[in-house]
Amino acid sequence: TLLVERTGQPNLVARLSWNADTGPTDRALGLSTGTGFNEARLSLLATKRQDPLVFLGGPYYDRSFEEDGERPGDKIGMTVGAALAASPETSLRVVLDQEFDGNREIGGLVQHGSNQTIGILTFGASMTFGAGKFLDLTIQDGLTSDAPKMAIGLGLSWRFDTPWRH
């Protein structure tokens, strides 16, 4: 956390994450159970609360590393959005993610024209119900020709009591 929200000042969080190349990949078929490449991401996220809204946004940069003579292009992007506390148990959100992917390299040669522009609009709703239960639904719409057309996500978290938890 670089900044903590105060009057006129947003929260600002920096994050460095690693996405490991896990699971088998069949490049000829374009199938992967993992990411296919090791990737590092550096991101900044600013949030500003104006109850009942929270505004969020920030840039990110992804660096992919070579695997079997192939390396996806670096990615630079920006996320902006807002979340609404519709009730103490329910929140709604809308987020725009715009990403620019660089050209892929194969065998050290740049594959010109392999770059992509990916724009995704996400609508989401989250709710808590009962003690320790959380439900999240997202619907994503691809805004550019390089983006997936649509994705739907459903997450359910359920916290169980254990003897060692108070």
Classify the oligomer.
Answer: single chain
Distance between the termini: 28 Å
Relative strand content: over 45%
- Which residue ranges are poorly predicted, with pLDDT under 50 across at least 5 consecutive positions? none
Instruction: Give the number of helices.
Output: 0
What is the averaged pLDDT score?
90
Give a description of the structure.
It is a single chain. This protein is mainly beta and 166 residues long. It is 0% helix and 60% strand. It contains no helices and 13 strands. It has strands at 11-19, 25-26, 31-32, 39-50, 53-64, 70-71, 75-85, 90-101, 104-106, 109-111, 116-128, 133-142, 150-158. Strands 1-4-5-7-8-11-12-13 form an eight-stranded antiparallel sheet, with no helix packed on it. Strand 12 and strand 13 form a beta hairpin. The chain is globular.
What topology emerges from the helices and strands here?
Blueprint (H helix, E strand, L loop, with lengths): L10 E9 L5 E2 L4 E2 L6 E12 L2 E12 L5 E2 L3 E11 L4 E12 L2 E3 L2 E3 L4 E13 L4 E10 L7 E9 L8
Antiparallel strand pairs: 1-4, 2-3, 4-5, 5-7, 6-9, 7-8, 8-11, 9-10, 11-12, 12-13
Summarize the structure.
The protein is mainly beta and 166 residues long. It has no helices and 13 strands. The two termini are 28 Å apart.
